[in-house]
Each structure stands twice: as structure tokens, then as C-alpha cells.
Amino acid sequence: MPRIKISLNSNSHVQKSLIGLLLFGLFSCTVFAQELPPIVPYSPKLYNAGNQNWMIDQDAQKRLFFANNEGLLEFTGASWNLYPSPNETIIRSVKVIDGLIYTGCYMEFGYWKREATGILKYHSLSAPIRKYLLDDEQFWNILQYQDFVLFQSLSRIYIYQKSTRKFKIIAPKEQILKAFNTGSNLYYQTTTGNLYEIENAKSKLISNDPKIKTNKIVRIEKKGEALVILTQLNGFLTLYQGKVFASNFPVNALLQASSVYSSQHLKNGGSVIGTVSDGIIILNPDYSVQFHITQALGLSNNTALSLFEDHDKNVWVGLDNGINCINLQSPVKSYSDRSGLLGTVYTSELYQGILYVGTNQGLFCKKWNSGESFRFVAGTKGQVWNLFAYAGSLFCGHDSGTFLIKDAVATPIFSQSGTWKFAAVPNNPNLLLQGNYYGLSVLEKTTTGWRFRNKIAKFDYSSKNFELAGPNQIYVSHEYKGIFRLEVDAALTKSTNVFTYDQPKKGKNAGLIKYQNQIYYASKNGIYKLNPQTKSFARDPFFSQILDKDEYTSGKLIVDKTNKLWMFTKNYIHYFTVGKLSNKLEFNFIPISATLTNSMLGYENVTQISPSSYLIGTTDGYYTLNIDDLSFSNHPVAITYVSNYKQNEREQFVSVTEEGSFSHDQNNLMFSYAVPEFNKYINAEYQFALKGFQDNWSKWSSKSATGFKNLEPGTYTFMVRAKIANSKPANVARYTFTILKPWYATNLALFIYLILGIYLGFFIHKKYKRYYQNQREKLIEENNLLLEIKELENEQQLMKLRNEQLAKDVDNKSKELAVSTLTLIQKNELLALIKEDLNKTSAGDATRGVKNVISKISKNISEDDNWNVFREAFDSADKDFLKKIKQAHPALTPNDLRLCAYLRLNLSSKEIAPLLNISVRSVEIKRYRLRKKMDLPHEQGLVEYILSI
């Protein structure tokens, strides 16, 4: 973008307003456009250290080291590690030499050596010569030359010889600005501007030219016999045969307007220059500008304190606020619009040598492969959804309708509704179908150009995605309604039938595309293919395998000009090509994740701008990639750290080079591993296994650490491998370790347990033998006792049976007594009746014979005889009753005892009266008198009492 110099009069408000409007109009209509290599930003918050990084270097394992405000900062490619400086001051310089990391800080310099644990340990070189150090010295630079390491402060240069471990000191009278190493020579510049060469540890003046003296040197590069000198404010100078010339390099004008702070020679012969406030400038070998990257174009900060090119030709920039990595060799180039004027890119098209990009802000264009800025196409303010080149015309689908674009001028041809998409009508090149916010419509080419012809009636749903299956059949995918099939008339004027599909289900960000004469529908459930005969969709296993392997983000499907089918998932960009020797599709993928591309989900777009180059839109610009240059070289994975810890204790790092041995309670292990891949758009993926615990490989993951808890005692081998994209793993890193058994589970302990077990078994056997002997004797004794008890029980049982028999006999006797008593009663009653009748008969004329009969009857019903018979029977049935009652009541008479016996038999007064030959009334009187003699209480019954005796 050209630089504009404007002078203002502070009193002229009108001039200020006019110029402000001029600048606003200029910047609102143009956007600076430069496709840049990918920039990977690392913020201080991410690497958890100081803002400023003063020097950078890399070791043979491709680990990077930064001289940071907080200490020595290490980056493995997967993790950041900070080592505070030995005296807690800012580390100003770092240099990796023969595996040792040399650093310099305030009043201290030395080296860091990696221990077996992977942790760096500091060793001081300045401590033995502490007395020779000047007060307040800081060591800003470290150089290597053959067997020597040079530590440069602003006052001295300390030359350390590694083989002898001895020092030499160069102490010029003036302050030192900076020391330089051109490979074969060492130089330094003093504050007076003089340039010296170091020979035999002594200073030799090689130039005090005014051009040198008035310029601070940033870098010296040897070109044959000449020295090319980069200065802070005047660009490049050339020193040849003692004379200094101003170099006529194209970049000088740019450098003279900047303040150069740092510079680094590149392996391709070019260089990178860091400025104080204008970002970095990357030069080609001919000193022309390849890239000028500032904060506005993606750099995290405009002040570049340090620069470094790593083994993979990435440029690292130590900024005043963070670190950036620039992937110079990447086949991906990106354009990022930090100003927000361009916006989110929804579509693009390279048409007649002009690149058009449609964004949410409108349509912009610029000449392709030029340093021009993007220009806004007037009248296109708003969302641009689609750009479609057809039949020599460029159509623009816009939120306001449809535009024809020619020579960067937009002409509206349809404004009734927003336009999503365009499609050619088969066999009719003069018709174009467009999907609108409210259905489908037709554009027609006439002699005067393209015009709107008609809307297809009877279908009013938004038609963002549609495809023609034939001249009269259209399929439309609606994100919230699903899939429609429209039958239209031959003139494309109205829909004759609309069928809505239940399957497949509608889906967020779903897509519909026609590829190789087949219609495909993509959603989170898979990719479905239309069967032309049944007009139904079936899940396609070949394409759906992509979604089975990677997480769905969008169903957007895109077919480019060379018949490649593109689709996007969470971690990859996929594309399919037709085989060169067969129609079989070949599957390819690019390991660029959705988070890195920053594309708008559902609006992903890919535009082919050359046979192998593609432009992909993002939310803040776009990036281009050349698929022919996409090559992924794998790097060996290394286990960087192994740590173990006890429960609720801090972790301890252990050796990664030797087999580990840990106690049983140190059975929680963490493993960190890394691949030194620093490409922005390529992520390394890892697989691990723990032989002896988890023998199968884990799923591929971008996580660079894993852990295992509560491992059982045993020997394990941790294995990890890595891949980049579809490359094969370069190696498998292994770490073998053993979790020891607790002391009580060792072999010695087991042997002791065995001896104790045998002794205990013998002791228990003896105890049990004695126990069983005692038990046997006790059992015999118990058995004998049981037999005796059994005999007693049998005797008791026998006695019980006898008693029962006796009871039965008593019952029988009682029954006999009762029967005999009743018989007597009946006999006496009968005789009494007969006697009564005879007395009546013979009352007046009784004969002698009748009187004899009456006399005999009176003898037969004699009470004494009856009582005697009854008494004998009663005594035999109920022994001792009469005796017991007589003892209890001595005052009872024989008649009283007789009554008691009858009551004992539970006879009633009526039954007792004949036996006593008295009336019932008399029996009741006898019972009353008997009760009084026995002195029974009123509440106790007489019979109850007698029965209880």
C-alpha cells in the first residue's frame, strides 16, 4: 500500500475533516492484501513466562530455547518448561553448543546440562572468575567459534575455551554494542562506532569509516571478500577492502524508514529482519522483500527482539510480548483481515485474472498474484453467498438478490429475494436456476443479456441447497424441514408435486450435492445416496466412513472444477478424486482442523484457483494451499519426561534413559512425549500402550501426555508412537519400569511365610489332633449319657403308657360305676313304683301274699345294700377319695360321705334321690347342710370343690 504524506495546519478544522473523510473512504473501500505464510502465536499466558524473549536457539533434538525475562524457556513441540535463572534475573542470551545450553544473565553465565530425568541442571562458569566480573554486568550475547564460547557483555567479551576450561578477557576502552560471528571471523562494534576483529583473543581495528561510526550495526554477513553490514537506521552497507559503500538493495528504502533491532540469515540465502515498531521483513536472497509482516497482518507484536531459523526452516520471532513461529516452507498461505473490513469469506472466484471474494460485508476484488489491496465492489454491501461463473458471465448471489459482475462493477438483475445458489439447467444453456430465500426462480439469457424470468410457483421454502436430478425433478435440502422432491413442469414455471422425505432425518449444517451424476445428502448421521429408481436415500458406507472416523462439524459438500469432492470434519479436510486408471474414487485428507481453519460451519467454501491451488474462506479472511506441495515428513517421537508420585504428594521426575524401579506406593506414573512439529496447520497425533497393563494401542490423539494410576506390582513397558497426517510413525519410543512388590509380598517374605505356614500347619495339626481326641472322648461320654437319658426316656415313656393304661382302666371303672349306679337307681325306681302300686292295691284288702311281696321289695331297695355295692365300686375307681375328704372334714357322717361320692360322680339331685331313697327336696337340704359342714365360701361351688380333691 503506498505511503501518503500529508501536512496539516493545526488551525484548519476544515482541512482536518476533509482529510479524515478522505482517509476513511480510502480505507473503507480498500483492504491491504498479502497472502502470508502461517503464523503460530504463542502468548505469555500460553507458555507461562515473561513477555520478552531476547535470544533463541535449538538443540539437535529440535527442542527450542528462549532467553526469557523469567528464565530459560524450553519448548518441546508439545509442552513448555521454564527454568528460572540461577540468580532470579533476566536471561539475556542463550546458545546451544554440543548439547549444552549456555545462557547469560545479570552477573552470571554458564550452561545447563540435561540430566537422566530430562530436567536441565545449571552449572556456573562465571563463579570461579567472579572477582574478575565488572559490577552490574549483563551478558547480552553468546557466540561459538571452534573450541571457544564467547560471552559478551556491554563492557567485555569473556572467551571460554572448552577443552582447557580457561578464560581470556577482551576489555576495550569503549563500551561494546554487539559482537558478530560470520563463520570464519569474529567482530564487534564499540559505542564509538569502530569495528574490530578478534584475532588471537586480541582486538584489531578494521574500520573507523564515518558510515560505520554513525550507524549501529545489527548484523554482519560475509559475501566473498566483502562484508555486508545491516545497520539500525540506514539499511545495508558494504565493507570492501577497507572502504564502506552504501548498498543499492531494493529493501533499503523500507529499512531506512524503520528501526532495525535484530536480524537472522536464512538457509535459502535470504534473511529476516526484525524492527522496533514495524514488525519483521523477510528478504529473498537478492535482498528484495518477500514478506513484510506486521501486527496488522497477524504478528502478535511489532517489536521483534530476537530471530531464529530452526532445522525445519521455520522462523521464530521473540517479540516484546510473546513468541511467533512463521512456517515459511508451508504450502499454506493465509490472508488475515485484522481490520474487520473484509469480514467472513463465504465464497470466492478467480474470474478473468481478478480474485473476487464474497463476505458478510460485501464483494471485494483484486488482481490475482499482485500486491494490490482488495477493493470494494460498489453496491454490494451485505452478505454475498455465492459467486458462479457461467457462459461468460459472473453471477453474484447476494442477500439483496442477484448481481452480474463485470470489470469489478455489479449490476442487479433480481431483487425480489436473497439468492443462495445457482445451477445450470440441463440441455438449455440460456436458462439458469437459482435458489432463493423464498423458493426457486429462473434466470434467462436474452439478446440484451441475463434477466429474471419467473419464480417457480407452489414452493416457497428457502432453497440454500438444491440439485437437479433431471429436466423436471429438483431436490431441495432445508436445514429445518428436511429434503423435498419437486416435480416441475417442462417450462419451469410451477411445481406440480412436492414430496417431503421422512428419511434421512433433517440435520444441522446438512448439505446436498450432485457428484458423478449421483445426488448425495450429508448430515451428522452420515452421507446418503439417492437411488434413482426408488427415489429413496440410503446410507453410503464409502463416504460415511469419514464421519465414522472423525467428528462431524458440517455436511457441506463441494465439487470443484476438476471433479474433486470436498468435505470438512473436525480434524481434517477431505477430498475425493477419480482414479487415473479406473473410476474408483481415491480418498485423500489434509490434517487441518476446523479450529485452525476458523471457517464458518455450514458455509465452508473451496475455490480452485489453479490446477493444484485452492482458496478456502475463513471467518477473518482466507488461506490458500497447494495440494501438490503437501508432503508430511514424520519426526521421531521422544519421551521427554517421566514422573511418579505417591498419593497426595508432589511428583518426582525420574530418568528417561534408564529402566525405572519404583516402590509399590509409587505406582502413579505420568509420561510426557513430543514431536518437534511446529506447523500451524499440522497437528501431530499420538498412540500409546502400556505392555503388561494395556497391551492394545490407544486411539490416535493430539494429547502429548498420559498417566496411569494404582499400577499393580510388575514389569511394564510404556510405548508411544506419533504420526503427522497419513504418514507412518517414524519410531516407537519405549520406557521400561518395574513396580516393586511391598516388603510383605517379596520372595523372601513369601519363603518366610512358607516356613511359618509349615510350622503353623504342624502346630495346628497337633492341636487339632489333640482337640479331636478330646472331642472323641467327650463324644463317647456324651453318647453314653445320651444312652442313659434315652433309657430314662424309654422308662418314662413306658411309665407314661402304663399311667395312660391305668387312666383308661380308671375311666372304665368309672364308667362301670356309673352304669352300675344308674342300674341301681333304675332298679330302685322300678321297685319303688311297684311297691307304690301294690300299696294302693292292697290298701283295703291286702292279702298275705301281697304283703310278702312288698316286704321283699323293701329289702331289695334297702339303702345300705345299695351303698355297700356302690362303695365297693367307688373305692376301686377313685381310691382314697373318701379317706381324703374325711381327713379334710372329720365332722362328716357316713351319709355325708355317701352324698359326696355321688357328687364326685357329678350326679344331679334328681339322680341322687332314688339312691338315698329320699325326695329331691331332701337331697337339696342335704347338699346345703354338707356345704355348711365343709365351711365353703359363698362363691365356691360344692361340686367344684369335691371334684378338685
Describe the structure.
The chain is 23% helix and 39% strand. Helix 7 packs antiparallel against helix 8 (848-860), helix 7 (747-845) crosses helix 12 (909-916) and helix 12 (909-916) packs across helix 13. The strands form 16 sheets. It has a 5-stranded antiparallel sheet with strand order 1-34-33-32-31. A 4-stranded antiparallel sheet has the order 2-29-28-27. A 4-stranded antiparallel sheet has the order 3-4-5-6, with no helix packed on it. A hairpin with a 2-residue loop joins strand 31 (345-351) and strand 32 (354-359). The chain has 949 residues and is an alpha+beta fold.
Task: Describe, in short, the structure shown.
This protein is an alpha+beta fold and 949 residues long. The longest helix is centred in the C-terminal third of the chain and has 99 residues, at 747-845.
Report the mean per-residue pLDDT as an integer. 87
Question: What is the CA-based Rg, rounded?
Answer: 59 Å
* Largest beta-sheet details: 5 strands, antiparallel
Contiguous runs where pLDDT drops below 50 for at least 5 residues: 1-30
The total count of strands amounts to: 65
**Tally of alpha and pi helices:** 14
**What global shape is seen?**
elongated
Helix residue percentage: 10-25%
Oligomeric state of shown chains: single chain
Helix/strand-derived class? alpha+beta
Proportion of strand residues: 35-45%
What spatial order of strands do you see in the largest sheet? 1-34-33-32-31
